[in-house]
Design a protein that fits this description.
alpha/beta; Four Helix Bundle (Hemerythrin (Met), subunit A); 510 residues; 22 helices; eight-stranded mixed barrel; 3 domains; TIM Barrel
Length: 510
Amino acid sequence: MDILLAETIIEKTSESIMVTDANACIVRVNPSFCETTGYLPEEVIGKTPRILSSGKHDTLFYEAMWDSVQQNGFWNGEICNRKKNGELYLQRISISAVRNHKGEIFWYVANFTKIDKEIAQSPQIDRIMEGIANGEFLLHYQPQVDISRGMVIGMEALIRWQHPEEGLLFPGSFMPLVENSDLATPVGKFVMHSALVQARLWRSQGLDFRVGINISPRHLENGHFIEDLIACLQHFPEVPPDMIDLEIVESAALENLDKVVPVMEEALRLGIRFTLDDFGTGHSSLTYLQKLPAKTIKIDQSFVRNIHENINDLALVEAITSLSNTFQREVTAEGVESLQTGTILAQIGCHQMQGYAISRPMPADKVASWVRGWSPDPLWQKATRTIWTREDLTLLYAQIDHRRWVEEVRQMVEGSSKIDPEPEMETGECRFGKWYYHSGKSRYSHLGGFFEIEPIHDRIHASSRRIFKRLSEGNTTLAKVEFQRLLGISDLLHEKLDNLARQVTEKRAF
C-alpha cells in the first residue's frame, strides 16, 4: 500500500521529480518533469542530469552541491537549467540521498519547483531593465585558440553586469530571467552591437580573429533577427561578416529546425559564421548535423573537463571530433581547465580549445596585450605532431583506466569510499590488466618496452593488496604510507606507457 501511495504521489504532484541511481544515471521522472523540461521519459532515462545543464554554473558550484549531498544527505538551493528547446529557467531544487540497509547510497531523489514565472513578475526584471538603461552591462572575452597553428582564432563575448551595489554579476544570476522574457531581444542586440564595436577596434589594431556572440533562441526566432543583423553589418562596414561567429545552443537548434535553419541560411548568405554550442547535450544525429549549416561544433564543457579520468567522456569527445572531421566541420572543446586535458585533446585530434587552462574571460582592454603575449604550451604542440589511429586510442584509454583505478584506491584510503577488495585487486582483473593481457599484448608485444610494463603493474597490485590489508586491520596511517609508494610505482607505469605511445605515434609523425 505504501509503495502504491508513493507511486501515486510521484505521478500526481505538481513538482518535478527525478530519481537517479548511485551512479547518477536517471531511472525515473514524473509527468511534471516532462512538462517542465520538454523531454519524454525515454529521452532522459539512462542519461545523467547534465542533460539539463545550462552551462551557467561552474565546476565549483556542482562540487559544493554534491559535497553537501554526500556529507549531509541533502542539498537545497536555486539552479539554472536548460529545457530541451534550449530555453533557460530557474528552479528551486532539493536533492536527497536515499541509503539502503547497509548505509550505502542507493538512489538520489531531486524535487524541482519552477520559479522563473514567479521571478519574472517580481522587481528583478525591473532591476535588469534599469541596469540596461544605466549602462551597467558589459562584455568580457574568453580566447579560443588553435594549438596546432599557435594562433588565437576567436574571442567569445560573455555578458557581465557591473551592479552598483552587488559588484560584478555573472550570467547565471540574471540571464535565465532575460532569456525567458521580452528582454531577450534587447539584451541580444546590446551584446551584438557591443561585440562589433570591439571587433572594429581590434581590427584597427591589426588583430584579426573571430568574435563569438551567443544568440538566444527567443532572439533568433523573433522574426526580426536578420533585420537586426543587417543593421549591425551596415553600421560596422569595417568588420568583415566572416569575423562574426554566432553561437546557438544545439538543443535549441534541434528542437526548432523548421524555424532555425531558414534564419541560419539567410545569415550565411550575408557571410556570417555559425557555431553549434554545447554539442553533445541534445539528441544529435547525423541527419540533424547535415541539416544545420554550422561551421563549427563546440563540445560541451561537461564532457571535456573530465576526459583525463573518465573514459566514457573521452570516447564521446573523440567520437564528436571524428564526426566533425567527417562532415568537414571545425571542432572546438570548451572547458579545458588543465594542461593534461589539453594534451589529451591534442592527441585525439581536437586542436581548437577554450578554457581556464588558456585564459579566464577578461575585460576588452586586456585582450590585445594577452593575444600578443600568448603562445601554446610546448607539450600541447608536441602532442599535435603525433598521429593516432582509432585502434591505438585504446592505449590512451588504458592509461585513463589506470588513473581512475588509482583514484578509487585513494578514496578508500581517505575513507570517502567503502573498502572493496574485489574484483580488481588481481592484475588480470582490473580494466588496465584486461587491456594489457588481451588487445594490448596482441597489438604491441613486438615493441620494445611492452613487457617492461607487466612487472610494474604487478608491483602496483601487490602494493594495493598491502593497503587493503592495513585498512582491514584498522591501520589507516600505514595504509596511507603504502599508498604513497603505490603512487611512485604508478608514475613509473605511466612513464613506460608514454614511451610506448611515442613508439606507436612517431612511426606516423610527419
